[in-house]
Each structure stands twice: as C-alpha cells, then as structure tokens.
Design a protein that fits this description.
The complex is a heterodimer of chains A (about 500) and B (about 170). Chain A is about 70% helix and about 0% strand. Chain A has about 500 residues and is an all-alpha fold. Classes of the chains: A mainly alpha (about 500), B mainly alpha (about 170). At the A-B interface, helix 5, helix 6 and helix 9 of A face helix 4 and helix 6 of B.
Chain lengths: ~500, ~170
C-alpha cells in the first residue's frame, strides 16, 4: 500500500482516540521527567482536560456520515459515536475521582495511575468503533490489561493484591473462552471483517455449521459476560471491586461494563442476526438463542439482588448491585425489540451518572476511615446534609424511583420487553420482583444516612474533584429523570442506529 | 491413516500431556519444562498446517522468551519448598461437577466437528506465507498493530510498577 492510499482515509475521524493517546503519552513523559519529590496530583487535571476535549471532539463528529478506515478495522457510525460519548463521560468522571483519591497509606505511583486509566479508556473507545474482530479483541485486551494493573496499584494493601490476582486469573479464563468462540466464527467464515462475516454466515445452510455457530455464540456470550459481570462470570466482581482503589472500582463498574455491552451488541447483532437457524421463523440464530440470553439475564438479576441483601461492605454491596444492573441491561438485549440499543444506551447513561456519583461519596467516606463498612455512612445527614441528599438521589435512582434517570432507564427497558410479539412477560415480571428486592438494600443505606446517629460530629468536607463529580452526577440524574426528552433528542440524532451494518 | 495424521496424533498427545503434567507437578522447574513440551508440540502442529512462520515465532517467543522469563522469575524470587503443606482443592462433588462439565463441553464440541466437511483444502497456503503475513500486518491491520504497541507499553509500565521494590524514603502523594 502506498503512502497515497494511506492518506486518502479520513484519519480526522480518529481525533478523539488520538487526543486520548497523546494525553496519555504526555502524562507518561511528564511523570518521567518530574522531580521525584513533586506531587503528581496536578497531572490528573491534564488527563481530565484531555478526556473532555476528546468528548467535545466526539460530539463534533455526530453529524458526520459513517466512515470506514482500512477495511473497517476502524469504523465510525452512530453506534460507535453514541457509546463513545458514554465511555468518555464515564472516564472523565472516574479521573475526577482519581484526582482526589487519598488512601491511608498514600499512593506511590500516582502518575502511572492516571495514564493507565487513560490507556484503559482508549481500549474502550477502540472497542466502540471497530468493525473487525482483531481490532475489537485488541481493544478489549488493552482495556483488560490496564485494568488488571490498576486493580493492584495499591501495592502494600493485601486486599488490592488479592483483587488484582483474582481479576487477572478470571480475566485470562474469560479471554480464552472469548477467543475460542471467535476462532470458530473465523474458521466458519474465513474472514475477520464483521460485515463480510454477516454475509458469509447467511450461506451456512448445513445444520452441522449451524451447530458450530451456535456453540460459538454461547462461548462468546459466556466469555463476554465477564466484562459485563453477569452470570456465569460474575463471581470476580465483589472481591475485585472491594480490593481495587475506589476510582478503579468506579471505572470497572461503569466504563468497563459499557465497553462490554458495546462489544456484545456489535458482535451479536452484526454476525448472528443474519445467520440462519432451523425451526424458527424468521430464521435467525440470534432469535433462536434469545431464550439462553433471557435465562442468563434472569439469573443475573436474581443472584445480584438477593446476595446484595447480606452485604455490610459498601463496595461489595455496589458490586452485587452492579451485577443486578447488568441483568436489567441484558433484559433489554434479550427482548430484542426495535428500541433495544436506544434503551440500553439510555440506561447506561443513567447508570454512569448514578454509579460514579455514589462511588465518589463512598470514596470520600472510606478513605477517611480506611474501611468501606456501611457503618461509616451513619448520620451522614448530620455531618453534611447536602452530601447526604446527593447520596439519597443516587440511591433513589439506582433503585428506580420516579423522578430520577434510573427510573426512566428501567421503564424503557421494561416497555421494550413487553413491546415485542410475543412479549417477554416472564422476564418483565422477574425484573419487577428483583427491583422490589433491591429496594431493601438501597433503603438500608438510606436509613443509615438519614436516621442513624453519627459516631463523630466532625462535618465532612469534600475536595474539589469529588465536589465536581457529585454535583455533575446529581444534576444529571435529576435532569434526565425529569426531562428525559433531552437525552432522547441526542438519541434522535443517531436515528435508531440504522447505519449499523452499512 | 496417513503420516500427517500420525504426526498430528503424536503432537496433540504431547501437547495435552504437557498441559496436564504442568497442573499436576509440584516443583516449579518441572512445571516449566512440561510447559515447554506443550509449546513445542503446538509449534509442530503449526508446521503441519503449513504455517512455518507462526511455528518459528511460537518456538522463539513461547519456548524461548516466555520460558526464560519464567526461569528468571523462579531464580530471582525466594520460594520455599511447600511439599508438606496441604492445599485445599475442593471437595469430591466439586471435582466431580467440574469433570462432568469439562467432559460435557468436550462432547458438545466433538459432536460439532467430527463429521464436519470444509471442502477442499487451500492448496496455495504455504506459498510465501511469511510475506503474506507481513503484507497483511502492515497494511490491512495497521490500526490493531499500532494499538498492540500501546498494550505492550501498558504491560511494560505495569510490570515495572508492580514488581519494583519501593524504597522506604520514596515520597507518597
């Protein structure tokens, strides 16, 4: 390939990726050349500014037509733009959390902490905008490898070490399963390009091939369920979430999960929707596999919500709650209504806001006490009423109470499940029942904050980064809860992701 | 039964035996050697598939670099012989369930592949395959190739910060 053909591609479409990459490189060099005794915290501001510029650049790309660079190894369509916005917003909020992360024993690799977060974010962005199996996998690995290191960055904490080791081992197994599934699809179609794959699988009429394709589907589903922390790969979440530094926990529960759903939707909708299957009308492998996804979604909701009831540690509680939320999101996927991607996008938006906001407050209180037990939330209302009210908003939104973004998100998914023909009444019923169960533990925290006496009278002061995060998240949660049409207007620009397969 | 089939059987058997031995041996050095057997027989499988370049890379990187790294790791770390110590490996039912799951998966895959017909084998696979890999890697797959370099950077930084011994006087922020 000559230089000329290489320059013909619209590389300007990769601006957000370049910005994040360059910011990460600048930070790594700055970290290298800064004197050893200098505080690294200002570097986080550079990272935040870089991600915000990338966010603006992505927003600027919204009107652009779908573009494919180098045979779809990088492609930008409305799906990738929409989810890249989410990933970048979540990443910026997590960086603000990281700015004010102050563990008891100090953090000796603060500079690395920031640029590894940026690299993980870059991996998630690459996953959002690719139409090629190899790029998708490389992006997935970039995200995973960075997260493994980030989980273990508190080297002197035994919990952090345990968390990193558990994460890397279960992550390795999940990657192996995913890759095994991918190898079957590649073997059956002979290409790594998703669109060509979709074209090739249509020709697989033989039932032997279809059996293998179904096997590949299940392997991919199981392997990718690790990233979104749903059944059967959810057991890592509580231990890893508890041991990892709080900003990393927030990152794993928000950005990593979003990226997991992105790759799941991209792969399954592109490849398997077109594949023929026996005994189904309309004949589609994706539709015939719907029941398996539905069962996993149901199990995820039930396990996540019931085990959360017994948790005392806030980070473990939120780990199980994040498993439950992955279950709700899977309901949106299993229903396969025409609003599937829209409802998942909105739910993830609400989830980013409410979860990062809640983690900001958890981080503040657990750093102070060096423990994340629920008891430290007791009497928060007396110590800082505004903070308590914000936490209340996040909890209400996570529980799905009207007036918050979480409610609208759940409503969309719920309606999506009933909208199809035949409707998924069973799944919708499980969703309602588990949501009611979830009230118990969310309101348990609520009671601690508002009705228990405080152990210490000292008021809680919030540092700048956390203040910005909490204010933005609380504002967003209420805004999209009361005026969801604002988010729908953004969604309307993507026109139901019609250019997904173009 | 052709010679290729026999070679495949032998190599596959060595690969699997190496893997099982690695899990069951108790001394770390023995484990590494068992792993080398697996790596080299996988390289042999690549040769059978006329992918010589991948086979050479497999020997260079896995049997060479990765193994040497592990040996260095063993040499440079203190490790006590833990022969008397009891480790928990789960009860009977847990093992039985795992075994059933593994065999069920094996049977499921076997059912899929044992009568699979992929038609004619590509006759020109072996021609210039190193050149073809190079062409694909540096033109078609430039973007993932570049991202792989970021992964290597991340892995390098991670290995250093996780393995480095912090000096006591280091500033903490």
């Amino acid at each position: 390939m000559s230089m000329h053909t290489l320059l013909q591609y619209k590389w300007s479409m990769m601006t957000p990726e370049f910005i994040v990459l360059i910011t990460a490189l600048i930070l790594s060099l700055a970290d290298l050349w800064m004197p050893n005794d200098k505080n690294r915290r200002p570097l986080a501001w550079i990272a935040v500014v870089g991600v915000v510029i990338a966010l603006i650049a992505t927003a600027g790309l919204i009107p652009a037509k779908p573009v494919s660079i180098l045979y779809d190894t990088f492609r930008i369509d409305s799906f990738s733009k929409a989810f890249k916005l989410l990933v970048l917003a979540g990443g910026a909020l997590c960086l603000l959390l990281a700015l004010d992360y102050r563990p008891k024993e100090g953090l000796s690799h603060r500079g690395e902490f920031y640029y590894l977060l940026l690299c993980a974010l870059l991996g998630a962005m690459i996953m959002a905008s690719s139409g090629d199996l190899i790029t998708l996998f490389v992006g997935l690995e970039l995200l995973s490898v960075s997260s493994y290191i980030l989980a273990g960055i508190r080297k002197t904490s035994a919990q952090s070490n345990e968390s990193a080791l558990k994460y890397v081992i279960s992550g390795g197994i999940a990657t192996a399963i995913t890759l095994f599934g991918m190898s079957y699809i590649f073997g059956l179609t002979g290409t790594t390009n998703l669109k060509e794959m979709a074209f090739e699988v249509q020709k697989l009429a033989d039932s032997n091939y279809q059996y293998l394709l179904a096997l590949a589907f299940l392997l991919l589903l199981v392997g990718l369920s690790f990233k979104i922390s749903s059944v059967p790969f959810h057991m890592w979440a509580p231990d890893v979430y508890q041991g990892a530094p709080t900003p990393v926990t927030a990152f794993l529960s928000v950005v990593s999960k979003t990226a997991g759903f992105v790759i799941l939707l991209r792969l399954f909708i592109t490849i398997f929707a077109a594949a023929p299957a026996h005994g189904k009308d309309p004949s589609s492998l994706l539709l015939s596999m719907q029941n398996y996804i539905a069962v996993l979604a149901g199990l995820t909701m039930i396990i996540g919500n019931t085990v959360a009831l017994r948790q005392r540690s806030m980070k473990r509680l939120f780990a199980y709650s994040s498993i439950a939320h992955a279950g709700y999101l899977l309901v949106g996927f299993a229903a396969m209504s025409w609003v599937m991607i829209d409802s998942i996008w909105f739910y993830l938006l609400a989830y980013v806001l409410m979860n990062v906001g809640a983690f900001a407050i958890i981080q503040r209180l657990s750093d102070e006490a060096d423990s994340d037990d629920m008891i430290h939330f007791a009497g928060l209302y007396q110590r800082n009423p505004l903070l308590a009210v914000s936490m209340g908003i996040f909890l209400l939104s996570l529980a799905g109470i009207p007036g918050t973004a979480g409610f609208i998100g759940k409503l969309n998914i719920f309606l999506g499940a009933l909208m199809t023909e035949p409707g998924h009444y069973m799944l919708a019923a499980v969703m309602i029942a588990t949501t009611v169960v979830s009230y118990v533990y969310y309101f348990g925290v609520f009671v601690q904050i508002f009705f228990r006496p405080a152990d210490e009278a000292a008021s809680v002061k919030l540092p700048v980064g956390l203040t910005v995060t909490v204010v933005l998240c609380a504002f967003g949660t209420l805004l999209f809860g009361i005026f969801p049409s604002l988010a729908y207007q953004v969604l309307a620009q993507f026109e139901h992701f019609g250019d997904f397969l173009q | 039964m052709s010679g290729e089939y026999l070679a495949f059987l032998a190599l596959a058997l060595v690969a699997i035996t190496g893997g099982v031995l690695m899990l069951n041996l108790t001394k770390v050095v023995h484990m590494v050697i068992a792993l080398v057997f697996t790596f080299i027989s996988i390289a042999g499988l690549y040769v059978l598939l006329s992918a010589e370049f991948v086979a050479v890379v497999q020997v260079l990187i896995y049997s060479g670099a990765v193994t040497i790294m592990m040996l260095f790791g063993i040499m440079l770390t203190r490790h006590q012989e833990e022969e008397g110590e009891k480790t928990t490996t789960g009860g009977f039912w847990r093992k039985a369930l795992t075994a059933i799951a593994v065999f069920a998966f094996g049977i499921a895959v076997y059912l899929g592949v044992y009568r699979l017909d992929f038609g004619e084998e590509g006759a020109r696979l072996h021609e210039n395959n190193t050149e073809q890999i190079g062409m694909a890697l540096y033109s078609h797959y430039t973007i993932p190739f570049e991202i792989a370099s970021v992964i290597l950077l991340v892995a390098l930084v991670g290995a250093i910060i996780l393995a480095k011994k912090d000096d006591e006087g280091a500033p903490k922020s």
